[in-house]
């Protein structure tokens, strides 16, 4: 197995041949080039892991090869080799983007160590790139499930404001996904390569929160043995997400107002003023307007943070999204646990859609995880769900279960209402309705016929029936 692909560039045929043969013996795949032109041609045909180029070439120099690789093959690492090294040459090589500059005559161990370091760095960079792609997938908009019209409007707002510096306030009940939206804004912005720093303000007492946000100097308080970098400084050139902002004390609100206006602050116990360039996103499950009226939240800070408000609807108002979310969580749990569970039964989905979900999406995720891990069959049934869902599922009087009725019969009323709402939302387009409900068209047709919904009112009017 080859340890890596190398392009060796040298105008001395004896050096070129002997070094290439020796590197092949070490397990590398090696191509050879004796001129700048030949090297550039080979780079046009193949992406090498590493390019080893002599600085002096008959039709140019190794810096030309380096520049071409940087522009056209940025994934290829370049090491320059010279027999006339100076400090200035080394500095120039590193500034031009070379990984290293080696001096002839080359020592075998030195060459192998340089190649190993270069390929190891390349591997780390490739892993970082893959991790970033995974983060983009995990925290980007693509991972936020929602077909509800209000969620689609939120997605449009996120796209519209991602590249602005405007402060964003995300509101909604606990568990609705405020952190996911904050991360999506960051990932879709020009700051995506910068840090995303999150802090839950309500989880820390005021003195500790101030130190966490702004940092402190040594000796600022008992236990402050050294200087500490605060979250705002860590978020420089990136995004800081302040969750549970309504819990901030009056004095902390004053400090937050200043940094939102000037992006300047001092560390706890310090006199030096720091300036940061970061996007600020805040979140709360509290009604800040009411908090202002009750004197719990500063009015000027409220106006400052409420530049752009994204209000996330509770899950109970996104009934049509529940099957999509439930299946998404089911797939994630199966992938992580190795269990094979295909889907939910119709009864289970109906129970999920009729439950009020006080814990919102987070509670749904926990319920699905529990049902998959504790369930025994290939389908998650209603009996796999927690008892509170069956006990607390609101059922209208007309559809309330009476003695002797099965669960399926008792839930026909709520199921009919859910399907009717979906049909009306999509103007009785059965394909879109089936897709929204997360079922196939045949299943939808059977349910419509069983529940007396097989005749569209639009068709009835059109044909005068």
Number of domains: 4
State the name of the first-level CATH class of the largest domain: Alpha Beta
Distance between the termini: 75 Å
Indicate the CATH topology of the largest domain.
Rossmann fold
Radius of gyration: 31 Å
Roughly what percent helix? 40-55%
Assess the beta-strand content as a share of residues: 5-15%
Shape: extended
The main β sheet shows up as: 5 strands, parallel
| Structural class by secondary-structure content | alpha/beta
Subunit arrangement of the protein? single chain
Tell me the CATH superfamily of the largest domain.
Answer: P-loop containing nucleotide triphosphate hydrolases
Count of alpha and pi helical runs: 21
- How many strands in all? 18
Briefly characterize the structure.
This protein has 465 residues and is an alpha/beta fold.
Could you characterize what this model shows?
By secondary structure, the protein is α/β, with parallel strands linked by helices. It folds into 4 domains: 5-132, Rossmann fold (3-Layer(aba) Sandwich), CATH 3.40.50.2300; 140-313, P-loop containing nucleotide triphosphate hydrolases (Rossmann fold), CATH 3.40.50.300; 315-394, Helicase, Ruva Protein, domain 3; 395-465, Homeodomain-like (Arc Repressor Mutant, subunit A). It has 21 helices and 18 strands. The chain has helices at residues 13-25, 36-45, 62-72, 87-96, 108-139, 149-161, 178-187, 206-214, 231-234, 250-262, 288-293, 299-305, 322-337, 346-354, 360-374, 387-392, 407-410, 412-425, 430-437, 441-450, 457-462; strands spanning 5-9, 29-33, 50-54, 56-57, 60-61, 77-82, 100-103, 168-171, 196-200, 215-216, 228-229, 239-243, 264-266, 273-275, 279-284, 308-311, 343-344, 379-380. Strands 2-1-3-6-7 form a 5-stranded parallel sheet, with helices on both faces. β6 (77-82), α4 (87-96) and β7 (100-103) form a beta-alpha-beta unit. α2 packs parallel to α3 (62-72). The protein is extended, with a radius of gyration of 31 Å. It starts with a strand and ends with a helix.
